[in-house]
Amino acid sequence: MANVTVIGSQWGDEGKGKIVDWLASRADAVVRFQGGHNAGHTLVVGEQVYKLSLLPSGIVTGTLSIIGNGVVLDPWALKDEIAKLRGQGVEINAENFAIADNCALILPFHRDLDGLRETAAGAGKIGTTGRGIGPAYEDKVGRRALRVCDLAHLDKLDPQIDRLTAHHDALRAGFGEPPIDRERLKADLAEIADFVLEYAQPVWKRLKKVRKAGARILFEGAQGVLLDVDHGTYPFVTSSNTVSGTAASGSGLALGPSAVGFVLGIAKAYTTRVGSGPFPTELEDETGQRLGERGHEFGTVTGRKRRCGWFDAVLVRQSCAVSGVTGIALTKLDVLDGFDKVRICTGYRLRGKILDYFPAHAADQAEVEPIYEEMDGWSESTAGARSYADLPAQAIKYIQRVQELIETPIALVSTSPEREDTILIRDPFSD
């Protein structure tokens, strides 16, 4: 059966939660393959609203949900999230939830370091969520991380803690902070270990079994391609690879990159970004404010207000190219209802030159000026539309023009947060 990988095609916050929830209801397994609890998905199912940070979206429908090895795991945040969802009536147990035993852990001093760095950076802030994601990935790459499997061997942690403290105590001293309290750390780990180990297993084996049975697997990405540590707006990026190819390495699924299947990129009908960094089409005027208010543009995890602007076809086209996107899910079309004119960025000007791509250097990214194509808007409502016949003619023209400019087919259009308010053009799960 076909697999589907869902990724954000902008800077995250594209409305992936609703699309992943819709797909998860038809999948046999849902896998998170990168990121941490800095990501957030909001699911609206009937009268219930679920806010997820770490747990894969399939957990709400009882679908087997897996946290892959590419994720960095804060065990205390996980415990809180599970408790909250159980309070909403969601059943979570070892049958429908699993954590890769080789996941790297986010520890309390990672959060400390994240906050200290951002505070010290002043105007040079990257705009992290302060949850320790970056420092945890640094320790993973530096080969000094503690992993989920280490929680089963707490009596053998001292050599690993030696490596961690040798690195972090020097950094902490530079910020005027005391050394890591080793005994407190070991006590905290001992307290949380049994909770995490209940779900820990070699998930690559479980996924191999699921795939062999012909099941449908949904890979759920966090953030967006423009936050990819290699392909995003560096240094204003996350600390992991967010492109679709990471689904294979971040889950350990057999057959490598070919296993990711249909790559569904999620893109808003306009553009948003939270935190610092370049944003060519940003609107710091009444139009930008109107987009933010109509789109309820506040981060699921942080509550931070998102910056808003017109749709940037250059960025999305580039995201689709580097991530092998098969089709796009265009979300929040209804936010554009009522605009007399709508604009799409089709290229950039940089010091007299015309560019059809987003340059790599931060100075160039900050200087590019968007080249716009203007179209008539539509006064009719698109909210809740479930077929092209329900859309105004001008809205259809807008969708078609976006499709042409990003050089990628539109596979579906989302017209509200509700699961069923979706116009399906191509089924990602079809073989």
Short key terms for the protein model shown above:
ten-stranded mixed sheet; 12 helices; single chain; globular; alpha/beta; 431 residues; four-stranded mixed sheet
Q: How many helices? A: 12
Report the oligomer: single chain
What share of the residues lie within helices?
A: 25-40%
How big a fraction of the residues is strand? 15-25%
The low-pLDDT segments are: none
Shape: globular
What is the typical, i.e. mean, pLDDT?
91
Q: What is the spatial order of strands in the main beta sheet?
A: 9-7-5-2-10-1-11-15-19-20
**How would you sum up the major sheet?**
10 strands, mixed
Q: Which structural category fits the helices and strands?
A: alpha/beta
Amino-to-carboxy terminus distance: 6 Å
Radius of gyration: 22 Å
Count of beta strands: 20
